[in-house]
Amino acid sequence: MFRRDFLAASCLLLTLAPVAAHAAEGADATEARGFIVNLHRELLAAIKASKNPKTDPALMAIFDRALDYTYLTTETLGKNFDALTPEQRATYGDILKRLVQASYRRNLKDPSGFEVEYAGELPVEGAVLVQTVTKNKKNKRDKPLSVDYQVALVSGARRVQDIATGGVSIVRNYRKQFGSIINKKGVDELLKMMKTKLDELDG
What we know:
Layout: H1 5-10, E1 20-21, H2 27-49, H3 57-66, H4 69-75, H5 80-83, H6 86-107, E2 114-124, E3 127-136, E4 145-154, E5 157-165, E6 168-169, H7 170-185, H8 187-202
Parallel strand pairs: 1-2
Antiparallel strand pairs: 2-3, 3-4, 4-5, 5-6
Helix pairs in contact: 2-3, 4-6, 6-8, 7-8
């Protein structure tokens, strides 16, 4: 349970570099791509300035500002979210956020070995999908990896709501996994399993 798709993919935010960009169509697409480019620059500057990036609260704060945790909380559960009690919703949201934060600390890597080409932007419901292709500069035999970022305007600020790696959406992937666990064992068991994973990452 709780595969590392999201944990690894979230760290690909660090690999973004404005190597090549197709012309964006419309202000929303331009601003969404600009948000991702600026996020990359801010993260690189913070990494260079940090003595220990994996424990630097300033670096972690950049990640926290970039992600829409409310969207992640509701959409990774889908219809099951409505069936949760207020206490269960709060607990789930808290554990999910802490899991994501733990993944940042655990998976931070040097982005200098990668480059990203911008493949374009697509409108999706209430958001823009910023399409990229990540390439390994040090190992040309590695196949390029598509990494797409769903960017939306949330309370006046751009936020990343979802990341699709190789065409696999993190939100949809976890909605399927978590839904299966809830259907078989109940939400309390899901929360227990997530807490166990959090303890492993923190340990």
